[in-house]
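USER: If only I could read backbone structure tokens as easily as an amino acid sequence. It would mean a lot if you studied the pair and described how this chain folds. Here is the record:
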Amino acid sequence: MPKPTGYGLNIYIKALEICIAERGYGYLKYHPSKGSAFTFEIFENKDDPTPAIVWSVHIGHSKKQEIYSDDLKKAWERTAIPRDRFMEVLEDL
């Protein structure tokens, strides 16, 4: 059963922005989807109209909007960001 991780949506977004910049991706776009889902799109170049990577995460309904445990790992599973680096950035924020 997925559980809240303690990492809020805003921290997750900041960690992604830092890590994709380090990996040389163009930019990150994100927006709410249906219900508790939130969609992330990564573009390879700044002028690309179509995202190279797309995934969704589910967030808790509390004020903190915590990311669920099953969705936290999507950041490194879907991108070339190493798990250790992503978690290091996430914990530093």
